Automatic annotation (TrEMBL):
InterPro entries for this protein: Calcineurin-like_PHP (IPR004843), Metallo-depent_PP-like (IPR029052), STPP_CPPED1 (IPR051918)
PANTHER family documented for this protein: METALLOPHOSPHOESTERASE, CALCINEURIN SUPERFAMILY, SERINE_THREONINE-PROTEIN PHOSPHATASE CPPED1
GO molecular function ontology, one term from the record: hydrolase activity
Phylogenetic placement of the source organism: Bacteria, Pseudomonadati, Bacteroidota, Bacteroidia, Bacteroidales
Protein name per the record: Calcineurin-like phosphoesterase domain-containing protein
UniProt domain Calcineurin-like phosphoesterase: residue ranges: 27-222
Length: 276
């Protein structure tokens, strides 16, 4: 069993874990390593070099946990790409939990039953929920929302609302997913980059009802931020293959009892220590 799973317990098709900690803390989000993209599936040597540097940073900073918001590989059917991504993750210190979420490249654009089954065989879960220092962290399988996999998405939605309802005594509710609900405006038209508006409204209403403060996503391969009332969406650049002006990097998120503070750092400009 992969070390990616040692911190996780599967519940239906999702994972729940609870931690206890009394001090402010920080975690790291990175997105879209997409092993194989740089050389169009001929090799993933460049992604390996980048991710080895990222692992060194993670091990030095020793965050409370790491979340990788999807597209771990470029071709979800390429076992060599998957194996190399998982090998890299095993280099992260064993005391640092690593949570991953599916992207459209890990499944496929249609999120077929076969692709989901293969993903589950590899990673063991496709969503998660845990509490740390009175904050609730929830990761979603957003490709099934985008692809309108109605039955699977409905089960996840019921699970999501239950966890949100049970987290109302927490200081924060923070969401993770590959697809952002929207990029610039809540009512923007449907496109490859966002969740279709009919589904989007359901989730945005939930975010408002249960006072979710933040969503951290990927998918775009560049940094972007937007908001819907008090719900803030932060999209983080690809760690290996940027498609905009942003250089490759990671996001460091600081969690305090009364606020969430985050910054994006270029890989060659990450501080050697983090002050809370």
């Amino acid at each position: 069993m992969s070390r990616l799973l040692v911190y996780l317990v599967t519940v239906i098709f999702c994972v729940t874990k609870t931690f206890a900690q009394s001090e402010p803390f920080y975690f790291i989000q990175l997105s879209d390593p997409q092993f194989g993209m740089l050389e169009k599936n001929k090799s993933f040597s460049q992604e390996t070099k980048i991710m080895e540097k990222v692992v060194a940073v993670i091990n030095n900073l020793n965050p409370a946990f790491v979340v990788i918001t999807g597209d771990m590989v470029n071709d979800g059917e390429d076992q060599n790409q998957i194996n190399e991504f998982k090998r890299i993750c095993t280099l992260i210190k064993k005391n640092i939990p690593v949570y991953v979420l599916p992207g459209n490249h890990d499944l496929n654009q249609q999120s077929t039953d076969e692709s989901i089954s293969c993903y589950m065989d590899e990673y063991g879960y496709d969503c998660f929920c845990f509490h740390l220092n009175n904050s609730c962290f929830i990761g979603l399988n957003t490709p099934i929302i985008f692809a309108n996999r109605e039955e699977k998405e409905k089960k996840q939605l019921v699970w999501l609302e239950k966890n949100l309802e049970n987290s109302q005594k927490c200081n924060h509710r923070i969401l993770f997913g590959h697809y952002p609900f929207f990029v610039k405006e809540p009512n923007e038209t449907n496109r490859y980059e966002n969740i279709p508006i009919k589904k989007r409204k359901i989730y945005l209403d939930l975010m408002d009802k249960y006072r979710v403060s933040n969503m951290f996503a990927g998918h775009l391969h560049y940094n972007a931020m937007s908001s819907y009332g008090n719900f803030n969406i932060t999209i983080t650049n690809s760690i290996c293959t940027p498609l905009g002006e942003d250089r490759i990097g990671i996001r460091i998120v600081k969690v305090y009892p009364d606020k969430i503070v985050h910054d994006y750092y270029d890989l060659d400009q990450i501080p050697s220590n983090i002050t809370l």
